[in-house]
């Protein structure tokens, strides 16, 4: 039994997220990117977030001047390709805030974040709105580990509401 526990805990450690990240920043148009410092502000906030949590930024930030209402965007798709090619090496995608990831409402937000999470990567925002998953069955110890139903994100519903509200606002 002792050997099983040692192996299990070693496997559990391998499942922990790497302390690495990529940064995704978006503005609505090229004009908006040229008229203000939005990209700079977003990038600085994301880099500061990464430093605060001791995350190593693996690439240059993905800077996108494109409507957030589209689920498929050149830089977002490029970032997703990077995450796919580097599966297991990237722990987090850092965004300034939810509306920078999407303006397509809760459905779009859920689709994009689920696609990222399916690659083993968590999404975080600099406002701290998106919270990490917790094991709601922690009292059962290792028995519940690995079951999807045992993991919940306390902020899931507020994230979706926020994404829906942002769909109705102008960029």
Please tell me about this protein's structure:
This protein starts with a helix and ends with a helix. 27% of the residues are buried. It has seven helices and seven strands, in the order H-E-H-H-E-E-H-E-H-H-E-E-E-H. The protein is of the alpha/beta class and 171 residues long. The strands form two sheets. Strands 1, 2, 3, 4 and 5 form a five-stranded parallel beta sheet that branches. It is globular.
Determine the N-to-C terminus distance: 57 Å
What is the overall pLDDT average? Answer: 84
Main sheet makeup: 5 strands, parallel
Provide a count of the helices. Answer: 7
- What Rg is obtained from the alpha carbons, in whole angstroms? 17 Å
Structural class: alpha/beta
Portion of residues in helices? 40-55%
Low-confidence stretches: 1-14
Estimate the strand proportion.
15-25%
CA-based shape: globular
Secondary-structure element string: HEHHEEHEHHEEEH
Total strand segments: 7
Oligomeric organization of the protein chains: single chain
Characteristics:
171 residues, two-stranded antiparallel sheet, alpha/beta, 7 strands, globular, five-stranded parallel sheet
